[in-house]
Amino acid sequence: MIVEGKIIGRDHDRAEALRADVSARLKGGPQPLSDIALNALRYEITDAVDDLRGDRTAEEALAIGAMLYPKLVELALLGRGHWNGAGKWAPRLLAKIDADLAIQFDSAFRVLFAEGDRGSVIALAEVELAPHGGPLFDGDRREAPASWRVA
User: Fold this and answer.
1) How far apart are CA 130 and CA 81, in angstroms?
2) What is the DSSP code (8-state) at residue 60?
3) For burial by CB atoms within 10 Å, which of 6, 42, 74, 140 has the most?
4) How many CB atoms lie within 10 A of CB 92?
5) Is the CA virtual torsion 128, 133, 134, 135 positive or negative?
6) pLDDT for the residue 16
7) Angle CA(108)–CA(85)–CA(3) in degrees, nearest 5?
8) C-alpha Rg value of the chain to the nearest Å
């Protein structure tokens, strides 16, 4: 909004300086995922894929797929150094960075949602996890903040 919006008000010089700063930050891309954030995402994706491999009803597979899609998009985009997006922006951003990847996502999830076939989504998740250390179950540990603990 800052980069593309129309400047109103009196302090155009300050607004232009802010616009230039925000534009440079956007072009620079997001900070890399921290180890903690990456491992949390790997764990959540691994857990969902493990659920898809299990004996699930069609309704459960649909719910798992709906939860998995944004997490897998987040890994695909941030893992490649691009900004994340949700909703309608997810396929747009995937297509912007890699048209083939966007087609793979669309195809895999379309088959899952329309036909209940989980194989393509599972394979896509495995491919996306691979460059980041693969699936993560064993050794995953997260500590609650001290403020959450009861003395």
Assistant:
1) 16
2) H
3) 42
4) 11
5) negative
6) 85
7) 145
8) 19
What residue spans of the chain are helical by DSSP H? 12-28, 35-53, 58-78, 89-97, 99-115, 119-129
Q: How far apart are CA 98 and CA 91, in angstroms?
A: 10
Report the distance separating Cα 52 and Cα 58, nearest Å.
10
Give, as one character, the DSSP assignment of residue 130. G
CB-neighbour burial class of residue 150 (10 A; exposed 0-12, middle 13-18, buried 19+): exposed
Average pLDDT for consecutive 10-residue bins of the chain (151 residues)? 81 84 83 92 96 95 97 97 94 97 98 96 98 85 78 70
- Nearest Cα neighbor of 129 from 45, 50, 27 is 45
